[in-house]
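mind reviewing these tokens:
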Amino acid sequence: MHRPLHLLGSTLKALAACLVLLLPVWAQAQQAEIKVGSKRFTESYILAEVIAQTAQAAGAKTRVLQGLGNTAIVYEALRSGQIDLYAEYSGTIALEIVKGNASMGLADMNHALAPLGLGVAVPLGFNDGYALAMRRAQAEELGIRTLSDLARHPALKLGLSNEFIGRADGWKGLSARYQLRGTPVGLDHGLAYDAIAQKQIDVMDIYTTDAKIDHLGLLVLQDDQGYFPRYDAVLLHRLDLPQKHPAAWAALRGLEGRINEASMIAMNAQAELQSQPFPRIAQQFLAQTTAQALVGGQPTPVQKPAQAHTPYGSQLWQRLVGDDLGRLVWEHLVLVIVSVGVATLLAVPLGVLLFPHPKLRALALGTAGVLQTIPSLALLAVLIAVLGVIGRTPALLALTIYSILPILSNTVAGLGEVPGGLRHAALALGMTPRQRMGAVELPIALPTVVAGIRTASAIAIGTATIAAFIGAGGLGERIVTGLALNDSALMLAGALPAAGLALCSELLFESIDRYLRRSKAP
């Protein structure tokens, strides 16, 4: 009887020790780093690498937090100091961030941003505007060339990104200006290209520097009433960045006007059509522009390499065993171990305390059950708003919340399975309730408790992939990037190792369960 209980105590102590060792690693301040963020689409990934590598060349230590989410999330990360800068667009800053008007210049934006400790600088040299696009053949057949023409065809199926639907300068204002009467379906931007190619939708929103516009034969509809403002790419940064890193800032200012629209389209094509990694694309671009600057040349488009056909199996294997595999697996494991460990340290003692009190027990299980039903992305968004940070902290809190219910419910269920005769026998021997719990009830309930931890671990391994949407790392990074690039091989390269971790977890807990049952055998 005492061996399983001793095992539980040792396990809880080991989990506590792991937390003591691991938490300082996350809490370690990295003030000397320049932290560069990005949104969750191809161009933003590339520009983040261009920014980081430019600062690195000037001797700064940098860290790139890719794919943090939409404008609201990345801006909140900047405002709260989680990142130091990212590539943003003038129209977005004017209309979405400072709530001004489309005619605002950089001076006006800086005046509005200064009280927030932020500034905008370094126009990169290209405009990446919003627009709507259709399949060219369909548009020509229907005689649609402009957004005013589109208004005469309300039956066309609209597939728009969720951010565009919700933006102040997006669907709501556009539909009012042009009297567009269709009801759009919200789609991930990368997936919308597949949907329009397969004729599942007729119209989608695009960025004017997207590489797939020409590749898929789409026609960009003219904004004949001039609704959309310019979206010139700029650096949105914390005001203390130039003082903290003067050499890196001077190097970043050297990017001004160095990226034209043709160069940006070509770099997007390298990522989306040739599947080149973002760091390599940025490295090639910076090497080319540096050479041009030495001879006083003007920026020219990055040359598109000839697209070679690679078998899908080879693509998947290359992505699966990429250089980042070890880092991503470790980050994923840390998220799971810490969250499940904290949930175990909370839920097992709580279950023991609540077991003798049916009303309190029902209330606690009901509360945990309600929290379990909250969609993971919604919970992450709420936690970001409450905590004011992105990254591992809200991700760990969310995963811990999801892990508590199975452990708590199994602890209570296991204690409920203890035969009444054993309780009476322990009482007849003069045991106190505490002695009875430690020597009789908890050892018998232990296999059921471990089953709850097993379930929580499986849930955490799967849910941890969502954490990459807020920059928490892990194998979800590949899935998020694959969604942005519409790269199914990259998404599988993230999903398959996660499935492997789940299988390893099941095998580990199966071994523990067998050991516990052998220990209980007479």
Residues 176 and 227 are 10 Å apart (CA to CA). Residues 25-30, 304-308 have pLDDT under 50 and may be disordered. The first helix runs from residue 2 to 27.
